[in-house]
Amino acid sequence: MPQSDVVRLRNRSLLAMGVGALLALAGLVLAIGGIWLVFLGGSPFYFLAGVGLTVAGVLLIGGRVLGVWVYVATFLLSLVWGLAEAGTDGWGLIPFVAGPVILLIPTLLMLPILQPDRWRWRTPLGAISAVLAVLVIVGLTLSRINQPQAGMLPALIASTVADPSLLRSGTDWPAYGGSYAAQRYSPLGQITPDNVGRLKRAWVYNTGDMPAGEPKESKYGAETTPLKVGDTLYLCSATNILIALDPVTGKPRWRYDPQVSDEYIPYTAACRGVAYHATPGAAADTACAARIIEGTLDGRLIAVDARTGRPCADFGTNGAVDIKRGMGQVEPGMVSITSPPTIVRGVIVTGHQVLDGQKRSAPSGVIQGFDAVTGAKRWAWDMVNPQWTGDPPAARGYARGTPNMWTIASGDEALGLVYLPMGNSAVDYWSGSRSPQENAFSTSLVALDVTTGRPRWRFQTVRRDVWDYDLGAQATLVDFPSSGGAVPALVLPSKQGDIYVLDRRTGRPLFPVQERIVPRTGVEPQLRSPTQPFSSYHTLAFPQLEERDMWGMSPIDQMICRIQFKRAEYRGPYTPPTADKRFVQYPGYNGGTDWGGIAIDPVRGVIVANYNDMPNYNRLVPRKEAEQQGFPAPRGEARGGDMGEGGHGSKDPQAGTPYAISVNPGWRLPLTGLLCKRPPYGGIRAIDLRTGRTIWDRPFGTARRNGPWGIPSMLPINIGTPNNGGAVVTAGGVVFIAAATDNLIRAIDLKSGKTLWHDTLPAGGQATPAVYEVNGKQYLVIMAGGHHFMETPIGDALVAYALPD
After folding, report:
1. Stretch(es) of the chain classified as CATH 2.40.10.480
2. Comparing C-alpha atoms, which of 654, 568, 559, 657 is closest to residue 615?
3. Is the pLDDT of residue 249 over 80?
4. R_g of the chain, CA atoms, integer Å
5. Which residues is 37 bridged to in the sheet?
6. Active-site residue list
7. What DSSP state is assigned to residue 196?
8. How large a percentage of the chain has pLDDT more than 90?
9. Which has more pLDDT, 634 or 128?
10. Which of 475, 607, 458 is nearest to 164 (CA)?
């Protein structure tokens, strides 16, 4: 035999051995893992596929063409099994198709290599083309199933916008949610579905407030929604620098830096917005006749002149008030204000963030009211010591570890009420030492009398919360249409996906709230509530997870997720925390609805709600084991301040309790970073305000910035991504929203749910837009600040859009 033929045969043999070794290796992994899964009571598919792959690989290593046909049979088994499990759900089919197709291509190419006299190249190439055509069909299926499920918009329910706030949206955007009713609705109608495609950037302003070093490793997450009042735009940067801009050009007018040290950054350097207050009766040209008020990361309220940016001398001390007074020992970063205050009847009402998961004796969640002109403390509400009306008695401090309000309150000027979405007691996942008052007010909406600081009513959405299901979103105030006339009401979304409608005067639900039996297991079964409240008005109806809902890009990672699922404790909604094994929390602590809240068109009677759809994979870790594993200590102590390796709450010490907590946010695989649950991971829907029925629903967010190992796929497929930040809806029938992880801001047709226009932001859009008008021209602004938890690029750009002249 000529030497050239010998070399050719050797090369063919080596190629076949290489492909065979790849198949055999994958097969062994599947077979071993498949046996484990069968032992756990799971699907036998992975064991059968593993055996097929291993046999095919061994035959190819031996140079036998039969290995090709064994793999083809295994591939067909995978396809048939996938169709039986997932039907035409394209996402469900991917683990059964994508990885196997990748292996099918080199395997088919072995035919002309091993038997060149019998097989021509066109045969395997034709087969590969046919398989790729099947993939195209699957892709078309994905596109089809991700179209909005459209319904009909309801008839108009109002001719005017009912809003109990003094300052309302329109030409201006004078409060974080448009007004203190938090409807996030603009009555401007210049931009419509017909012309929104012509929207262009009007200007971009960079705050200059960026972290030192690599931005992708920072803890910055600028989330500001600017205010527009009169001829000025007001905003705050990630570390509380106050800025005033020309709303037409974006040119700066003034800038004030309150000098917040980086040591006070809690989990994220974030400032969601500021508040505007005009002193009644003050001459317009006097200092601080109108003022901008913000809360800072180091726990201060700052007031500056709205015209000049200079501190208001009549407010506190040199324009600042320290809200930490009366809290006792507060380590830097443990108490911070990340949300704008709410001002009702001249009283600044503020809560604050208490750093999650650190220690049971964390600082108090006390709610405080301050005079908007002088900064004097009007009242304080400490739920454990309600008899105190101001600062605690000498040598005393506000009760530690109580639920806090880290998010945004809404307010009714006429009723004199502020509505507080309350969080949980310090350390979210263990409840053994909570007081009766904490159990009564945690994870509740509390209506507080703004004059006295005393509660008028409360509505609790979770009993004895050990899932971090704190209320993250503002309640939205509306006049609710009913057969007996309009009812002063509020619409309250939750992380669990329930939306409640309450009479805002009394807290009485306008739709029945059902008490359903939930599990009473875990480490504190005697403390778990036997029932939890479920809304009959509207719910996202997160399905009961099953083994088939576990996902991956290949059979191997799907198998790993299925093994994890089978090994974990999961009893449906409100599965209690466990220490002997992982437990599945679904939905996870990011929602449902988080701080972005909802938007309501009160004229058309439509709620717009974006949401998350991801589980967490958690475990309580006994104290001794946590110390052995090197869990971080609480903030301010040795080893303190580290929030863990995988994101918010990944490894939290929960000092002062028997357990630390290990959280896998979104339930990710450590190797690829992909999520274990089948997509979508986020969506957006329109809801009929009158009935709570869904009008349309769709996955929200493309896969362009997501992929395995953190590598962006750049695929425009609507996978439905995690999203943080809210929407605004306009009289023109357009919804504006960024929020998703793909760095896009979108205009969505309110009627159909279809995307009409989008633009790529310079960083992540984890903020809520604002809409305003100047000289008859409508503008849209959005902060592209990004967020490290959402893994979007960090930025400092405020971007404005308008129709071209």
Report:
1. 224-329
2. 568
3. yes
4. 28
5. none
6. 468
7. G
8. 78
9. 634
10. 475
Which residues, in sequence order, are bridge partners of residue 723? Answer: 740
Assess contact for 89 and 142: CB atoms under 8 A.
no
Which sign does the torsion angle of CA 124, 125, 131, 135 carry? positive
| Separation of alpha carbons 231 and 247, rounded Å | 7
Q: Specify which of 144-148, 605-609, 632-636, 708-712 reaches the highest per-range mean pLDDT.
A: 605-609
Distance, CA of 341 to CA of 357 (rounded, Å): 24
Binned at pLDDT 50, 70 and 90, residue 765 comes out as: very high
Q: Could you tell me the CA-to-CA distances from 790 to 641, 648, 670, 746, 799 in Å, in that order?
A: 20, 10, 17, 18, 20
Bridge partner residues of 683 (DSSP): 611, 699
Distance CA 295, CA 240 (A): 8
- pLDDT, tens only, 478-528: 999 888 889 999 999 999 999 999 999 999 999 999 999 999 999 999 999
Of 775, 610, 670, give the one whose Cα is nearest residue 188. Answer: 775
Distance, CA of 470 to CA of 465 (rounded, Å): 8
Q: What residues have CB less than 8 Å from 606, skipping those under 6 apart?
A: 153, 154, 600, 686, 687, 688, 689, 695, 729, 750
The whole-angstrom distance between residue 659's C-alpha and the CA centroid of its chain comes to 26
Mean predicted lDDT score pLDDT of the chain? 91
Residue type, 722: P
Alpha carbon of 484 to those of 154, 455, 487, 699: distances in Å? 19, 28, 8, 37
| pLDDT of 159 over the 50 cut | no
The confidence score (pLDDT) of residue 282 equals 87
Say how many C-beta atoms besides its own lie within 10 A of residue 125's C-beta. Answer: 14
CA dihedral 622, 628, 632, 637 (to 10 degrees): 100
Higher pLDDT, 270 or 285: 270
Mean pLDDT of 349-378: 97
CATH fold, domain 224-329, is Thrombin, subunit H (2.40.10)
3-state helix, strand, coil in the chain (%, to 5): 20, 25, 55
In this predicted model, what pLDDT tens digit does every residue of 428-447 receive, in sequence order?
999 999 999 999 999 999 99
Structure tokens at 215: 């931005």
Closest CA to 466 of 296, 289, 327, 616: 616
